[in-house]
Amino acid sequence: MTTPDPRIQPRAFLEHLYRAAVHRALPLHNTEAFLPPPPRGRTLVLGAGKAGGAMAQAVEALWPADAPLSGLVVTRYQHTPPRPPGLPARIEVVEAAHPVPDAAGLKAAERILELTRGLTADDLVLCLISGGGSALLTLPAAGLTLEDKQRINRELLHSGANIGEMNCVRKHLSRIKGGRLAAACAPARVVTLTISDVPGDDPSVIASGPTVPDATTCADALAILLRYGIEVPGAIREQLEQGALETPKPHDPVFAGQQVHMIATPRQSLDAAAAVARAAGLDAHILSDEMEGESREVGKVHAALARAVARHGEPFQRPCVILSGGETTVTVRKQAADVARGRGGRAGEFCLGLTQALQGQPGVWALAADTDGIDGVEDNAGAFVAPDSLERAQSQGLKIDLFLGRNDAYGYFSALGDLVVTGPTHTNVNDFRALLVL
């Protein structure tokens, strides 16, 4: 059994682990080793994602001052970091909506595609891709309107579909995703720097893989739409049935000589948090960086594990920290006309399921937060759970079953003063979960 630092304060300590995980994934710490040398021609930087602004600044800081550099990157509203003093702006950064696309994202995608015109074999395209790029880089297929894409995106988000399923559909309903951006860049060399926010770190799933080949098919996309009851215009459905909206495949020569570098991953961030926990005298156990499933159910599984550790010292001895990552989902329940829909995201819903299943287990604290600093569309990163969370809620008349029924994690933890609010972090390696058992 280890001897933990007696000064550990559970909430502050868990927030410290979260900050360590985020710090490990910041672009400036991870970019330099993967930058290619300047080409004979020009260097064009294109990109999309929640980390887009920070990635662009990292390239500007590390690229030779005498080498040409220009381009356009789109990130989420309020996710552009403050510019360091003395750092010249050479890459334009614009902001757009996430998770449902808007006209600003459409205009940015059109401009990015336009910038690829006239590229030569002497040119380099440096693509900066991070999570959130699927919504930010929106360019509907012919026959689809922006309003169509917004509705389909919203219904996918509420359906419980996992990230791979959502992005399969997005790729086949787009003119820029699923390898199409790389095709537009030919004959220039394309080097993609990616921050992973998906289970398995598959670059074809991150931001719907605009610069990498796509192994999914129109038939796959159609099956997903049918599975979740999501309608598309008749002409689009017909094109999917005929395979007319197919994406570039792995054997396509357009990808020859191109490179993809994973500069930050969920596992690296979990490893960083584990190292901090061990330095404080605690055993640290990483369950997985690829967890998927309904957020509330994943919370219940974590609760069962934490209870076993707290009560029996199995399968891990206490004191310890249990870490996990991945991308869970929330199926939004339909509400009666007189019941307001709740607020919250994956991390909050995980904490609701965890709180309910822990039933006030002594000695167990937890924090779950999105590493981009925003849980869904709210202003919090996630939430904190303590042994007395359920009791404090009950004393206020808050019934956890009702909050779960309307997906209202934000309302529940806000009333307890247990929201975790960080603001945008300027990176994104997705879900971070830490349980502390003392």
Strand and helix map with partners:
Layout: H1 10-24, E1 43-48, H2 52-62, E2 70-76, E3 92-96, H3 103-115, E4 124-130, H4 133-136, H5 146-159, H6 163-172, H7 180-185, E5 189-195, H8 218-227, H9 234-242, E6 259-264, H10 266-279, E7 283-286, H11 295-312, E8 320-326, H12 346-358, E9 364-370, E10 382-385, H13 389-395, H14 400-405, H15 409-416, E11 419-420, E12 431-437
Parallel strand pairs: 1-2, 1-4, 2-3, 4-5, 5-6, 7-8
Antiparallel strand pairs: 8-12, 9-10, 9-12, 10-11
Write up what this structure looks like.
There is one protein chain. This protein is of the alpha/beta class. The chain folds into 2 domains: 186 residues, MOFRL domain (glycerate kinase, domain 1, 3-Layer(aba) Sandwich); 239 residues, Rossmann fold (3-Layer(aba) Sandwich). Helix content is 36%, strand content 16%. The protein contains 15 helices and 12 strands. The strands form 2 sheets. The protein has a 6-stranded parallel sheet with strand order 3-2-1-4-5-6, sandwiched between helices. Strand 1, helix 2 and strand 2 form a beta-alpha-beta unit. Helix 1 packs across helix 10, helix 6 packs across helix 8 and helix 12 packs across helix 15. The longest helix has 18 residues. It is globular. The N and C termini lie close together (11 Å). The model has no long low-confidence stretch (mean pLDDT 95).
